[in-house]
Amino acid sequence: MTPQGPPILTLKALRKEFGAFTAVDGIDLEIADREFFTIVGPSGSGKTTLVRMLAGMEFPTSGDILLRGERINDVPANKRPTCMVFQSLALFPHRTVGENIEFSLKIRGVEPAKRKTRAIELLRQLRLPESYYTKSVQKCSGGERQRVALARALAFDPEILFFDEPLSAIDYKLRKTLEKELKDIHRETGKTFVYITHSLEEAMVMSDRIGVMRSGKLLQVGTPNDIYTSPQTKFVSEFMGDVNVIPVQSTGNGSLLAPSLRAKFATPVGAPQVQSGHLVIRPEFMRFLATPDDAPNSLTGQLYNEYALGSRIQYQVRVGDHVFIIEKLRQQAYGGKLDDQVLIGWDTQHSILVRDE
Ligand code: ATP
């Protein structure tokens, strides 16, 4: 669900240079009130620099940041109704859970009784027992510590919370649980969450919308479904994980030539007008065919290997120098054996033509 309504944050041609290097290169974006917006991109793409500017920890070289329509470019971090949530490692290790949560209230001069009431309220909200108020942070598990870090950020009731890869140091299983919990907490608190990660998989689970960043630019912004089903560039489609990507050229008469496969494929309806690009087909949309007529696009290859992925099986089929990936549910597994000559194909509406970028 994408929250509607006026934006809480508006970025206009936002740019940050470090000497001759441009870390953030002209970003235009609106983030809606109460939205869970995730910025995803590889290491060095400028995610942290962007979020640090939004949090007031770094100042833009040019462009504007508006909070509910007011320009806040020069407002320092402690004067903004926003808060950065770091990895749980940033907690004070020798203090109690309560002292950690109350930290921002204490430096704002809130009296002890009020601080405690707020801390207990947050423990409840984050599903931690009240008795944890006096527990040492060092005696908490990784997941509990992450919740304490979040409670500390929520303590002074910020409007926007920024998260810089808070789950990156946590093991896979716990991370998967915390991703869902964070999404629940987002719902329960009604705050705007701006989250950065290098994992599109993590972004998909939690976000209302995702912005994919590369080299300081936002390449595409959309819902998880938009990004998954309609990537606009090769980079965005490949960032999603295993996909089949075929370099193609337009023939000008409705078909696409794939020189490396010496084959022609049908152009998907609504495809962008490009001279050359890439045809993307997700593994779950590739099929094994009985005859070439069973799909509008077909190729002959050799079944090279298969991998069990829990509920699905992934097959690798070699066609010349290309390796195609096909995924089937376990109950629809391919019946043949390795090294079989196989016919594979796809329906044109399941392919996407993307730009080279
Ligand atoms: P990561 O996922 O590795 O944290 P990122 O996408 O968050 O990467 P940034 O930390 O924003 O990327 O860095 C973007 C680029 O800007 C990098 O090449 C980095 O070296 C450069 N950079 C960041 N801060 C500074 C600085 N203070 N001075 C010079 N260069 C910097």
Give a written overview of the molecule.
The chain has 357 residues and is an alpha+beta fold. It has two domains: 7-229, P-loop containing nucleotide triphosphate hydrolases (Rossmann fold), CATH 3.40.50; 242-354, Nucleic acid-binding proteins (OB fold (Dihydrolipoamide Acetyltransferase, E2P), Beta Barrel). It contains eight helices and 20 strands. The strands form four sheets. A six-stranded mixed β-sheet has the order 6-7-8-3-9-10, with helices on both faces. The chain has a five-stranded antiparallel β-sheet with strand order 13-12-11-14-20. A five-stranded antiparallel β-sheet has the order 15-19-16-17-18, with no helix packed on it. Helix 2 crosses helix 3 and helix 2 (97-107) runs parallel beside helix 4. The longest helix is centred in the middle third of the chain and has 18 residues, at 172-189. The relative contact order is 0.12. The mean pLDDT is 91. Bound molecules: adenosine-5'-triphosphate (ATP).
